[in-house]
Amino acid sequence: MKTMVSQTTDQSCANKLNRASASSWVRLITLSIIWGGAFFLIELALRGISPGWLVAGRMSAAAAFMCLLWAYHGFKLHTGSSRNWMGLMLLGVLNTSVPFFLLSWGQQYVSSSVAGVSMASAGLIALPLSHYFVPDEIVTKQKVMGFSVGFLGILLLFNIGKNTSFGNSTELAGLLACLFAASCYAMSSVLLRNLSMYHPVGLSALSMLIGALVSFLIALGMEGAPSPVSNETISVLLILGIVPTAIANLMRVRIIRDAGPIFLSTVSYLCPAWAVVFGA
């Protein structure tokens, strides 16, 4: 009986691996480059705008872009009869506004390279969440081994932190903010997999709109009215909003639906390398 269960599990995992097509790998690598470069852009934007309004501006640009694309697709939203409005609202918070604010705030105190490396923890968190909340995702020995290697990587990150003065309370707080942002991304990946009843463009557009509203309220409540910003900062915000936010989110939805959230979590091990390259 145990042998039959093991064979069934292995076959399911093989099917899961087969589902990760060449196009999924291309999207994953492209997404890692886009997200890896975003940390450097955030660092640039923080020179001319506060963290809260950086997120609000970034989300506004992303929401505007996605609404135009949604209009082009005829404002399609539902692809089935089921609905999950609470999940959609939660996605708008966990997928964009909260992690973006945490990253922007955290990068005041840590470098773009460290912020990128800290995102590797998203893969560790996504693994158990996917196992329990996504029906067709199964934790195997191979995945546990990968989980262990990733955990060692996180320990190495904290060891590096000791050598780069993370004993400073503000720097440690910045690192923790980045790690909490990674947790939000892991949870939203599982949510995205379970919101397949929504059209990908409509789902992305609504999550951007919800995120923009929440970001605006957070910025206004915590930082007050925004100060004038330079044209250079506005340009960086537009790039942040359109490329690593709107377009990257569409790619993320497609990868999760084609290959699952555990496969997507691999991007968290690729992003740090690009973050270091762009932030060096």
If you had to describe this structure to a student in words, what would you say it looks like?
It is a single chain. This protein is mostly helical. The chain contains twelve helices and no strands. Helix 3 packs antiparallel against helix 9 and helix 5 packs across helix 8. The protein starts with a helix and ends with a helix.
| Average pLDDT score | 82
* Extended strand count: 0
C-alpha Rg, in Å?
Answer: 19 Å
Strand-pairing-aware structural class: mainly alpha
What is the CA-CA span between the terminal residues?
Answer: 54 Å
Query: How much of the sequence is in beta strands?
Result: under 5%
In N-to-C order, the SSE pattern is HHHHHHHHHHHH
What is this entry, summarized?
This protein has 280 residues and is mainly α.
Notable features of this structure?
mainly alpha, 280 residues, 12 helices, disordered N terminus
Give a topology summary.
Layout: H1 2-19, H2 22-45, H3 51-72, H4 85-106, H5 112-118, H6 121-133, H7 141-163, H8 169-193, H9 200-223, H10 231-259, H11 261-264, H12 267-279
Helix pairs in contact: 2-5, 2-10, 2-12, 3-4, 3-9, 3-10, 4-8, 4-9, 5-8, 5-12, 6-7, 6-8, 9-10
